[in-house]
Amino acid sequence: MTEEINYVLRPTQPYFIIDTINLRQENYLKDGISHFYQFNTNEEISPRIVPDACIDILFEYDPERPGHMHSYVAGTKLEFMTDPRLFHKEVFGVRFMPGNRPELLNVTMKDLLNNRFNTEEVLNGDKEWLNLMAQETDFHERIQVFLKYCSKIEKTKTRLYGKNELLQAVKKFAYESSGKIKIHDLEERTGYTDRYINKIFIEEMGFSPKIFCKIIRFQKALEILNSGRPENMTKTSVELGYYDQSQFIRDFTKFCGITPLKYLKMREKLSK
Predict the structure, then answer these.
(1) Model-level pTM greater than 0.70?
(2) Which of 52, 84, 189, 236 has the fewest CB atoms within 10 Å, i.e. is most exposed?
(3) Dihedrals φ, ψ of 223, to 5°?
(4) Tens digits of per-residue pLDDT, 44-91?
């Protein structure tokens, strides 16, 4: 399950803090896992979702039916959207690092792109632990049950080779550069042509290395904007790898549904 990547940011869903209730998060940042989170859905708002290039495993609990739980695996989106299906639920989630497909799943990121599957249908190994997850009501106990199962799967994983090694290398270079690496740089670093790199990346992920880099760059922009208003937006745009501020605004708006300036105003309003 583990991919040897030097993680430089934690992928985020910025609207969760606005669109959900009682949001809790705990960073993990190892074994391919970014963090765990839990929230209650808001009866009046459909959660808004932005691209993050991540796989999430979610566990939905019905407060009116103790011990009843539905779990599914969700892939990344490629543009801003809302999810009208999350209502009247308590949700516990596990978010994996961008581009990481955990060993415990037998489904590709391409199959999961803009899609979801029942967890039981795509799990490798024993599925009995899902019954334990259904019974747990404590946030940290749910984390422990999940990690125990992951540890069990980790012991049985096989060594990666061939195409998988190349795929990992491309994601690693993209992630370490915060999405700023160019395709010709990938050619030089891996020794493979851009056509072949695109082919194997799309086979697994469902989208190109260029799109993956755009999403990573967007997530890096969120990290910067979440820390406060930049002194010079044009300079920040260039530092993020955009040609100019207009390209930054265009890509950010596509992924977030609002401009960087409106996003900053929303964050500032929340902090008051």
Answers:
(1) yes
(2) 84
(3) -60, -45
(4) 888 899 999 999 999 999 878 888 899 999 999 999 999 877 666 899
